[in-house]
Design brief:
Layout (H helix, E strand, L loop, with lengths): L6 E7 L9 H11 L8 H5 L10 E3 L4 E7 L1 H8 L3 H10 L4 H12 L6 E13 L3
Antiparallel strand pairs: 1-4, 2-4, 3-4
């Protein structure tokens, strides 16, 4: 329940974005390789909650992002925790990460080099008018 004039903010973070040409194979991995193994609810995140019923007057919000500087191995370690990767491994019986690593290595440069990675944050903000 919201009082009249109250503001409700829903937020989340979207798919990690890698710099430059490194992002294209990463997007394929996210959407095609492990995409079918994400829980159905993941679509709410990928759609930035735009598909949810939201009976409030929209309030604009600034753009935000989480930024980290990771090596290629740190990225692979993080990806190994994804539920979609775990489901892929259980269903298919193999690990999809070595193929992604082989594809990213020539684009990354020195594997020990830290690259700036971002998760775009999204906000769906509304004001209760009644």
């Amino acid at each position: 329940m919201l009082s009249p004039g109250a503001v409700l903010a829903l937020w989340g973070y979207g798919r990690m974005v890698l710099p430059g040409a490194i992002d294209a194979p990463f997007l394929r991995f996210y959407a095609e390789t492990v995409g079918p193994f994400w829980p159905a609810e993941r679509r709410l995140i990928d759609d930035a909650y735009r598909g949810l019923e939201f009976p409030f007057a929209a309030v604009s919000a600034p753009d935000f992002a989480i930024e980290v500087e990771w090596t290629l191995q740190r990225l692979m370690d993080y990806l190994s925790t994804w539920s979609a990767v775990k489901r892929y491994q259980n269903v298919i019986g193999s690990d999809p990460l070595p193929a992604l690593m082989a594809e990213l290595e020539p684009l990354w440069g020195a594997p020990e080099a830290a690259r700036k990675l971002q998760w775009p944050l999204f906000l769906r903000v509304g004001r209760h008018s009644a």
